[in-house]
Write a structure and sequence with these properties.
Elements lengths: L1 H21 L27 H19 L3 E8 L2 E12 L4 E2 L7 E2 L5 H13 L27 H5 L13 E2 L8 H7 L16 H15 L3 H13 L4 E2 L6 H4 L6 E4 L2 E4 L4 E2 L2 H4 L2 E2 L1 H12 L3 E2 L2 E2 L3 H8 L12 E2 L4 E5 L2 E10 L2 E8 L4 E7 L4 H16 L14 H5 L4 E5 L9 H4 L4 E5 L5 E5 L2 E9 L2 E4 L6 E6 L5 E7 L2 E8 L6 H28 L1 H5 L7 H28 L2 E2 L4 E2 L7 H30 L4 H23 L5
Antiparallel strand pairs: 1-2, 1-17, 2-3, 4-10, 5-9, 6-10, 7-8, 11-12, 13-14, 14-15, 15-16, 16-17, 18-19, 18-25, 19-20, 20-21, 21-22, 22-23, 23-24, 24-25, 26-27
Length: 657
């Protein structure tokens, strides 16, 4: 039974990880990246040879697509205002054996869509219709609560420092009729404000969608129509759309997304994104190439401008960094990093079965975009981007590094478990965060070992407070304590968004709560088994006993038994939600709907809390009136303590709201 319970908890953890990853923008960690170094080559790079580039990518894509079971992909590379390569690989539709056509095939680009939203915002800023520094409430027809004295501005939305918690419920749907208008979605799914504006970077789909709604409100046009008129049309992007479902003129060219499972590809369906300014766009690779060229040319393509030159330069400049020593941060919507001595601005995207990434190297006037239609595409997009940078912008060998003197003493208070700032804090979704925790430990050789989801990265301290990956200097973190006394790590990794993680208090650590879950489950199971056995074996003895068992003593055991049964029902019920995997997507159905069972289980948790209090009362009564033997009273008291702790644990994860 213990093994079975461990398996159930493990499935729950895996499912929560999948849910978290489904909303991530091209998730990757520092440990997953190839070895690169910061120092640039001494000679300026030569222009890229298109034929050599194609041969290089052909071999690379063949290997990566085979390894990660990717049915189709498309890649574009631009340089100096020209399209060097736009090519499709594999199939847009396996059933019909439809090849990927770089001109016509549409892939969902996920969070790369945000770059179009931010471009639209900056258009209205340069026209004087929006201010980057005004309270965004002045542009809305509903109010963002004044949780903190400081208002949220567009600068905060652009830099993902508005302080919103992460919230995934109701974001994705599988049927068009389940969709709400953008304003309805935003008003019904307002996340909590958990950080003061401008202080902590926490990636926010809601914040970008809010910016898209502001574009609607100020321009007087639906967001998708605004982008069509002011970005797609000037750039000649005729195979792109934010509309859901796609217009009839484009729907036939939409690729199918696939999940590889049990040795075969299973097709998914079109995913409707209710936060559509943050991730709903569909586009061909040649259209994305035109967008890259326009940004590399500071807002201009073929004589058409989408941004003034000074606005484009501002958009590409740094807006926020957790620390200037990190050599990266966030521009006006782009992520900013230094890789192999090259300043890269980029954005990744993930829409369940579609994974994408766009990277620009402004100083080299070069850009690369890749998109895939398989659930394992993150590894492929990541590998291709870094292989491209390694090949055409190589770096010197990584020098051997050692931590600065006194590192062990400085880092000691920071060792332990960390929780991402991009997390939910006020609803039942908080439980997902415990499965993406990070652990920091110190090895005997003075290196800091950071592990997350099975991936391990090793850091040394370059100077007090500054950490660097020993194999990949593009990955740097700083550690410090904020004014509220919270210890945290924050930094940049490769070509992905800056992140922040806070040290988990001892009472919130994953191992503690897992121990409570397992220990409580086993103990109540033991009681459920032992008490009936004791009842039947004790019937003959009770028949000759002058005094029957007092009613409160019987009720006490019934309360504990009912608590144990309800606890198991809730645990198994929640597990059943997470193991209900949609084969075409590889993620639980709960991502796309709010099943009635979830509401029922959350309601049961209130009953569980009431029973825990009743058990506590009965435990006190048992000692006062001396029910059962001494061992029986001790055992029941332990059950009472565990019942309270389990109820507290559910409340901590907002499963009792």
């Amino acid at each position: 039974m213990k093994t079975k319970i461990v398996e159930i908890i493990s499935v729950l953890m895996l499912a929560a990880i999948l849910i978290s990853a489904a909303s991530q923008p091209g998730f990757a960690s520092a440990a997953a990246q190839p070895s690169v170094v910061e120092q640039a080559a001494t000679q300026p790079p030569e222009p890229i040879d298109p034929e050599e580039l194609e041969a290089f990518l052909d071999d690379l894509m063949a290997a990566e697509m085979a390894e990660n079971h990717i049915p189709g992909a498309m890649v574009a590379v631009v340089e100096d205002g020209s399209l060097l390569l736009a090519k499709g690989y594999g199939y847009a539709n396996l059933e019909g054996q439809v090849p990927v056509d770089p001109e016509r095939t549409l892939f969902r680009i996920g969070s790369v869509s945000k770059l179009f939203t931010w471009t639209a915002v900056m258009q209205l800023v340069e026209q004087g219709q929006l201010s980057l520094d005004s309270d965004i409430n002045q542009y809305l027809d509903f109010a963002i609560p004044a949780t903190f004295p400081e208002p949220i501005t567009l600068r905060h939305l652009l830099s993902h420092t508005a302080g919103f918690e992460d919230k995934g419920s109701n974001m994705h749907k599988l049927q068009a009729e389940q969709m709400n208008p953008l304003d309805g979605y935003l008003k019904a799914n307002l996340p909590g404000r958990v950080f003061p504006p401008g202080e902590v970077v926490a990636y926010s789909n809601y914040g970008t969608s809010l910016a898209g709604y502001i574009v609607e409100r100020v321009s007087g046009l639906p967001f998708s129509e605004y982008v069509e008129q002011n970005i797609f049309a000037p750039l000649g992007m005729v195979h792109s759309s934010f509309r859901q479902p796609l217009p009839d003129t484009l729907a036939a060219d939409m690729a199918t997304g696939y999940n590889y499972t049990n040795g075969q590809y299973v097709a998914g369906s079109f995913v409707f994104d209710q936060s559509y300014p943050a991730g709903a766009m569909s586009a061909s690779v040649t259209d994305m190439a035109r967008f890259m060229i326009a940004h590399l040319q500071n807002g201009e393509l073929d004589g058409q401008r989408i941004l003034r030159e000074e606005t484009a330069r501002q958009m590409h400049s740094q807006l926020y960094t957790p620390d200037p020593r990190l050599n990266g941060g966030i521009a006006y919507g782009f992520f900013e990093n230094t890789v192999n001595g090259q300043r890269v601005i980029s954005h990744g995207g993930n829409l369940v079965t579609f994974l994408s990434h766009l990277s620009l190297i402004p100083e080299q006037n070069v850009g690369i975009y890749i998109s895939t239609n398989g659930t394992r595409g993150a590894a492929t997009t990541e590998a291709v981007v870094f292989a491209f940078l390694e090949r055409y912008y190589p770096a010197a060998k990584v020098p051997d590094l050692q931590s600065a003197a006194g590192f062990a003493e400085r880092i000691a208070p920071y060792l332990g478990e960390y929780t991402p700032a991009r997390n939910n804090f006020t609803t039942h979704e908080r439980i997902y965060g415990v499965f993406s925790t990070m652990n920091a430990s110190l090895e005997n050789d003075g290196t800091l070992v950071v592990s997350q989801l099975g991936r391990v990265t090793r850091f040394v301290e370059l100077e007090p407070g500054l950490l660097q990956d020993i194999t990949n200097p593009a990955n740097r973190f700083v550690y410090r304590t904020d004014p509220d006394g919270r210890m945290f790590l924050t930094g940049v990794a490769g070509v992905y968004e800056p992140s922040a993680v806070f040290k988990t208090p001892w009472y919130g650590t994953r191992n503690l709560h897992l121990l409570l879950f397992l220990g409580g489950t086993l103990l109540f199971l033991g009681a459920l088994i032992a008490w009936p056995i004791g009842f039947f074996f004790g019937r003959r003895k009770r028949s000759t006993t002058a005094q029957p068992t007092p009613l409160p003593a019987r009720l006490a055991r019934w309360a504990a038994a009912l608590f144990g049964l309800l606890w198991l029902a809730i645990l198994l019920g929640i597990t059943s939600l997470f193991i209900n995997i949609l084969p075409g997507f590889g993620v639980p159905r709960i991502i796309f709907e709010n099943p009635p069972l979830l509401s029922f289980l959350l309601a049961l948790s209130y009953v569980l809390g009431g029973l825990a209090l009743a058990i506590l009362v009965f435990a006190v009564l048992a000692w006062v009136r001396r029910y059962w033997s001494l061992g029986g009273r001790i055992f029941y008291s332990i059950l009472a303590l565990l019942a309270l702790l389990l109820t507290w644990s559910l409340a901590y994860w907002n499963l009792i709201l």
